[in-house]
Amino acid sequence: MKILKSHLDEKLGKKKSVANLSNQLTMLGLEVDSIAKLKSDLCIDIDLTPNRGDCFSALGVAREIAASDQTSLKKEKYLVKKHGNSKTKVLVQAKEACPKYSYLEISSLSLTNSKGKVKELPQQINSRLEAAGINLINPVVDILNYVMLDIGQPMHAFDKNKISGDIKIRFAKNNEKINLLDDQTISLSEDCLLITDAKGPIAFAGIMGSKDSSVEMDTSAVVLESAFFAPKFIRGKARKFGIQTDASQRFERGVDFNLQLKALEMASALIIKYLGGSCTKAKEIISNSDLPKQKKINLSVNFLNQKLGTKLPIKKIKQLLQYLDIKIIAAQSDLIKILTPSHRFDLEIQEDLVEEIARLVGYDNLPNRELKTAQQNFSKTDYSKTLELKKFLTHNNFQEVINYSFIDDGLQNELELSKGIIKIQNPITENLNSMRTSLFPGLITNLISNAKRGNDYLKIYEEGKVFSKIKSIEESNHLAGLIFDQEKKSWNRSSTFDFYSLKELVINITKFSNVADISLKKSSSNILHPKISADVFKANKKIGSFGKVHPLILKTINFKKPFFYFEFQTNELFNSKSTKLLEPSKFPSIQRDLAFIVSEKLDYIELFKEITKHAGKDLIDIKLFDLFKGGDLQKNQKSLAFRLTWQSSKGTLEDSFIDSVVDGIVRNSKSKFGAKLRS
Amino acid sequence: MDLKQLKKQLSKDLNKASNSKDLQDLKIKYLGKKGRISLLSKDLGKLSQSERPKAGKAINLLKKFFEEQSQILSKEIEQQEINAILETESIDISLPVESEKLGNLHPITKTIDKICQYFISRGYSIEDGPEIESEYFNFDALNIPKDHPARDMHDTFYVDAEMLLRTHTSPVQIRSILKSKAPLKIICPGKVYRSDADQTHTPMFHQIEGLLIDEKVNFGNLKHELTEFLNYFFGKKLKVRFRPSYFPFTEPSAEVDIMDKKGWLEIMGCGMVHPNVLKEAGVDPKKYSGFAFGLGIERMTKLDYQMDDMRLLFENDLRLISQS
Questions:
Q1: CATH domain B107-321 topology
Q2: What ipTM was estimated for this complex?
């Protein structure tokens, strides 16, 4: 809210020094965004928190300053001669939404002078409105806006000659239409409050009037409305229709419910003074049971001091409360019974009063106290386990990236990642309209943008949540990486990243994580190359996939060069085993090299399984040290050379024993795969 | 042969030896089983009792002489041989090596961890919560009923009528209390979402929520805890200011500012946990009190790394994020 300093000075009845004003307001909780010079005045821009609707006026802000300065405000009075009663009849049907409706009539006023020119209001009023960002409309509306800016009561004026019959305050019918002042027609729902006449809606209560009933230059009689609309019936409506107004902002935060008559007095006095005319007595339709109540709260001095870590005496607390217009009903020993002022909707419980005292004492003047609570015991959390994995990847030269969790559903569809996709109902832009089901789209987007900048080597990873809804909404953490290697290697390095480099990395990740019972199977992932990829299983559970990205994906994203990808469920990689250190064997080990000639079609793993099956329990290592094709081999053959190492923890292994083991391996490999030992 | 001549011969042989093999041969020639000196020693028995000591002594001297000389020579030869190895193994150490670019954590991750490590050391445990959250946990349980004006401060993304993308990490407060009961010390880092985008806002960003509940926790404790934390984070003693603010789930509420070169800078929000929140989570507000705080990671990252445009953090231009 913007307000001129001179306006505050007028309310305070003194010229406030500028020096500390910004700090004083900010430390009261009325954060000053800026104080800017405006002609010979200063315009103060205050960022109001939604609980302080009472500060939405010059009066409200000045009231806070006065309380903090421990002084009182200057008294103001408006005197108007009243003639008779209003002939307009008002019927309030929706009492719970409109507990108080005050109004009066002014007739024989004129917005223009004898020459047909619009009458001018004093510069002071105009400049205060302009500083507040309130547009000047016509003298009647401007005066009503000024009353609102000055004391906080939003008002409305109907051209009396444009309304027919009685005024009725009721809820809208479903789809009932109103043509508003700004000339847009909106269709209402049953929870919208209306002011109506015999013909239909004349105002969307507390938000905006209708065009048809509005005051214009030729208006000569008005009905002035000064109502209390209950906040909960106004809240959300303006936002729903996208029409925040100065009135709606105030009504939804809560307007002082004892302010309506005062506002009518002030408005009619100003109208008659500047536009002529005469006014009727004000009429009020009140439903006491629906009006908010001033609340009674018991404040324990002990409680307050304990909350703030202070030792404030009861006398001091009482004094401070009174500066805030909080009435003390009774006070004895530890307890103060108070009554909240009608302008404060935010004071409901003891804690609220604790904050009031803290504000006036000044948060800065409250003590800092070291906290002595017992240290909590805690085990290693998912957070630190995840961080360890991330660090492992960075030590393997991967750069971490963070992408938005929402992406384009079109992209997810194209990549066939749309199973269980969760759409956002109100996305900020269409290309951020669905929750990611995989980290893949984000990483390829990073690849494309970095490759465009000429990056021909990229190792990136991301750890974060992916989302889907099959039966219910599921979110789980994934860890995924992308490797793109098209770099011209330097003189001392030749190998390019390939499937086996990725396999090594994946196995290292599982080793680092201490995941037991890992096996690899051909991947079923449709983003990976069907022949150059694998799924990672932990026991019988699939925990991840890796491999070369499917050529179809490259086509889809129009990316010419191949790259590699892996994705894991993060929590399946958490290291949960406690490590037991095993004593190394004291006995010597025995090594044998065995080279088998087998069919080229035979997968390594098959032969490996057969060898280990017959190698006995003392086999501690098996390594494929050579893979050979061509040479003296037949075209459809290959040679696989293994180095096997045995060692026992119980004794020295005899050569003759190992010989018999090797015999068994050779025999079985031959009978199963026709494997010949290469001489 | 007389010893003098033998010594002359021996010196001559040693002079000719140029590698360890030569030296080994000489050792055999003179000191081997049938070596020249060994043979002399064997012949000692043929001498008379009176001649024997003198001759023995002379032979020993010769033996010692040979050993000393061959030792010296051995060292020289070893040196020469090492020199020869070094000569052949020499390489051009000025050739360039292209070391692989080092990996790095994202600046956001680093900031989160810098903050977490502090609170872990203070006995807080780290909690997590869902990012697609119910309206109840995101708003209602935090004392923000429907149509509460505070909901206007959160431009919320909805996925259906009841579920939304959490607008803050505060729902984890409730979830943690329900799970662990009081007393409690937790922090929760995580992603949050609001429909807002400009230089200082991205529709997804990160927060850290802190919550401490125990008996007799007061506002002074909150001030102390957060002031100490900020001193730690910025690595110096800061001017810190607490000022009144408003959050529906704390009372009293405060914003924390630090004094920067350009003036006060808003850093985080905090307050004493509202009794309604404690009640909602089943904690007796008469027995327990607590404080909560929340801070924006992007803002802390911007300050720590002196960068201006927050959006860059999520563009993942490796030239930028690999610097951190």
A1: BirA Bifunctional Protein; domain 2 (3.30.930)
A2: 0.85
